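Morning run. Coffee first, then this:
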Amino acid sequence: MAGKRDYYEVLEVTREADDDTIKKSYRRLALQHHPDRNHGNKEVEVQFRECAEAFEVLRDPEKRARYDRYGHAGLEGMNMPNFGDADSVMDVFGDLLGGLFGAGGGRRGGRAAGGRDLQVAVELDLIEAAKGVTKTIHLRREEGCGDCAGSGAKPGTKPSPCRRCGGRGAVLMGQGFFRIQQTCPGCGGRGAVITDPCPKCHGAGRIEVTQDVPVNIPAGIDNGMTIRHDGYGDLGSRGGPPGDLYVVVKVRKHPLFGRDGLDLHCDVPITFSQAALGGPIEAPTLDGTFVTHTLKRGVQTASEVRIHALGMPNVGRDGRNDGRKGDLVLHLNVVTPRKLTKRQEELLRELGEIDGVHVSAEHKSFLDKVKAFFVPAEESSGERRGSSPPSGPPG
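And here it is:
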């Protein structure tokens, strides 16, 4: 391989250069030595081809490893493009610029592309969210045409190779020697054209169908969570995989229970006697039953009672329940009766008289604070020292 320059020297990089460094250097040199910028300079054209050849080797891990070990001789017998051909040079140059300007790669028949993802919403009540449920989604999606097996051609016929791109799916656009690969406008990158389209799909190769899809919703799902079903989106193009289906869960508000994470909250009214004396109360649960809880004496209004493991189940990252559950939080509200029987009124008046004589420690402390706020500090201080006003005018 006498006469060939070292590829690292051609691209002006070291042997330790990474892929990004090699790509940047090639881009700079290829634009610098491009024949359209150097009309009639044969030496620059040779340098341009040298850069393309060096980049073709050093961007490929296998070729680069063989070149590093054996030099140019190690590349003999490998599949190398003929860089005497302008198209081979532009294939490499177009691959590099394709990522910059969105040009197609020029591979025969175009590249497979994944299908479009779909999103639907499903509405649940709180009980369904707590227990888990299976919902059937009526989904409209695109799938392959069964009559033409997705080819788009009438049964018994085949698509013809595109004459404009020769079946490559891409064409070289530009003037002179400076050209960039772009998706073929004649076939849309497919590499073939349909002269006799399928009557069912009209040449699209796919049809829209309505499909009933069962969606398993795990117990404990929360409002706004999303469930993904792989492969239930639209069909991909040119043999690409289908997209996915994303099911967004919406949980309706419950008239009795509120939710905060895994905990359920419920307002529970209690009587004055229950608050003062304590005792058992019955609290509702989400499954329709009641649980008994014993209150302590002297419960105040707006107090909270937490009952363990009667809340929502926890959904793990894998979509399954991990056995943990939240709590049921009762918010106690002491209810003042609006209408009293004669006996109730007598008892409350009697209790009021007792309260007037035996003032509770909490009430006495409150009255002391009120007096301290409204009585002037000087007067209060003078009374505590036992001082008396002066007997006459100052002399």
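Confidence is low (pLDDT under 50) at residues 98-108. Good start to the day.
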